[in-house]
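hey all, quick one before standup. I had two proteins in the batch that finished overnight and I want to keep them in one place so we stop losing track of which output belongs to which input. First protein below, input sequence then structure tokens straight from the run.
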Amino acid sequence: MIRLKDIAEQVGVSISTVSRVIQNDQTRNVNQETKARIWEAVKELGYIPNQHARNLVANKQEKRNVRTMKIGWVANPKQAEINPYFADIYTGIRDELTNNEYNLISITKDELENEALLLKTIHDLGIEGLLLIDKINDNMIEYIQQYIPLVGLDFFYADKNIAIIDYDRAASIKMVVKYLVKQGHRDIGFIGGGVNETFEDLYAEHRFKGFQRAMEETGLEIQPEWVLNTRWKMENSYVEMKRLIKKNPLHLPTAMVCASDLMAIAAMRAARENKIRIPEDIAFFGVDNLEMGKYSSPQLSTVDIPKYEMGRMAAKTIIEMVEGKIKLPVKIILPFELVIRESSNIKRT
């Protein structure tokens, strides 16, 4: 077993210096270069900071005898408050864990990005598995999965080598586009957001990729001015839709495919305020099937995503991985369906 002494010898510093860095002790300064070398040695040598963590490693080869029944959840603490999509996922996770007598521990992305806090979080909290919704980088994923199983939800983790619970975002949008084409629409726009840190890289996002493919398969041309990147903010969706209408009111799409219900509801408000009839002038179609879509004016057509089931299945999967019933990083893709309401139900001639 690697000790503090081994790290100190490799870096060429005292054991107390190594201890201060690992414990994030701020009482005495250690320069950044030395800190970086110590953390590099910690990762390279595979140092495990406490007895609980050593038990985790030892129990990989044998049935775990000491259980904490704790599952971590990495998510932006405001996500569930701001976006009902995440609230439904959280409820599914919580219900499944509670039914199986597990406790859910909330962990923030910031706690994992600080290396000292990362070690404390993974090795001191006693969590047996980790559910990921907020985005963490690949290096963190590789480090964490050495010790505990991971399950990823949402689009950040679609292409990662960990267990995934998700739905096919591209296929959902393709289905929407093909429905609109059957309704007689040929001029179709898109409202969505990107996937990088600032959410600006729209062209890498799976729902937009589905839109591109569907338009190509139906022989329709994408008009760049009808593609609105809102960076997932309702205010931006409202402002950009308003700008589009004002810029060229005689050359507008007859339908807007929106990557979320929240984006659609904000854009519809901009349309109504500018005397655009929905769906007679422009049809709107969202994704998520949030409760508020039933009460928008008009009622919003949408893709029903099984949000609660995604959360429940994620919790069930992490439990089975913790208990050794699942060994491989499974990928479970849940079904979706179109919900047709007033915002798109008129056939164009």
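OK second protein, same deal, sequence then tokens:
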Amino acid sequence: MKSATVRIVGISIHNFKNVIDGSLSLENTRKNYRASIVGLYGQNGSGKTALIDSLELLKHVLCGSTIPGKFAEFINVDSDVATLVFEFAVNTLEDTSTLSYQFSIKSVLDTPERNIASLQTVDTKKRVCICNEILKCPILSDKQIRTGKLVDTDTTEVFLPRPKRQLLIGNDKESITNLLVAKKLASAQSRSFVFSREFLDAVRSTLKESMHSDKELSFYTSLIENLVNFGNHELFVINTTNSGLISLNEQPLSFKFAEGNMGALGSMMIPLNEPALIPLKAKDIVIKVIQNMNTVLQQIVPGLTISVKDLGTQVLENGKEGSRIQLMSRKNSREIPLNYESEGIKKLISILQLLIVVYNQPSITVAVDELDSGVFEYLLGEMLRIISEKGKGQLIFTSHNLRPLETLDRGFIAFTTTNPHNRYVRMTKVKDNNNLRDFYYRDIMLGEQDEELYEQTNNAEIALSFRKAGEYFGS
């Protein structure tokens, strides 16, 4: 597989949470930056988190993992199906290919595993069923290269179109039958079929058994493998669960790093109100991540560093040796447990290593919901400005803090609207000398955009409602 950089260039959301229709380009068409930054702003309940949730769902799909049941509740109440469309740019040294991956989710009852009906009332649970997967890419032919369907699962067959099916998995009847079973199994297990191990293994086997070096088959297989690698190793989604864990005295650490022939990626939860017992290998990872993070941390919070205090070894439940550690904070030669630091510091620590990777690597996408939560607004703006001007990767975030509107190029900023049929827009009629923050405030008052960005509130009515509510307490 050729070394490639995958970047999300567009997202379309339909009937997902409170977004009936919303499309957002993630490209800055104003200026050519190496980094891809998109900050999404808007009032509460206007579809910001829906964008991050769609990316979390995408990661589960690309990894071939079971979709968490919570997504069954994310389908719009007025619809039976939610549909998401993601556009990707796959860049190699030779060229750039544009891919489109579309899928729908529907909510189905999770049938109890019993062979008789129970007289006792059983709580019915819902699960997600993935359907109508469509993968489009450049279609190679002798005459021209055009964009068309490579895989379409909306059929009783394994997938269409048949010429591409024959190319990707061959005509062996037993293999086709096995894939039909795998397709039904993926649906029953709330997994993607296109990115299931069964389908991928079939495509890989066809490529391996190809008598000749089939350029077209190699091209399609490489594109699919690039998306798989992107979902498993290069896409990170940080939702508001992170902030909730911090409030519960857990320190999330999300990371990706490489050192020589060694590397690690993922996330880890470390208790703060008591020593944590972790495997020895995990301890080595934590130490390396913190060492890497401290290089930047002591610059953005002057003099502050984090360390790992080794409290000795202890046998784990599996009989292997583990290490008892505690995260410490050190500033001005004074060391205290990290538990006593502010939640803003803990929030920074939870995502800082990923921001370092975004700055340095083009093949990384990090999506963060409520990036501004607990972070000093001036520091937030300066970090985002530095990443946007000199970084290489892709950062997608939502925020309520408007400071970045003054530090980022306006091509990096998008807004939610009050219209559920057109949730995401970029502001028009903005001049180069306009302060985007002031311009946004002015639009809230005057409504000069094609779509309303803010549903106006009435201060007098708010004050009256507070007074009425107070009557319940005899005030």
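Flagging for whoever picks this up: The longest helix spans residues 280-300. The domain at 1-110+125-240+369-475 is CATH 3.40.50 (Rossmann fold).
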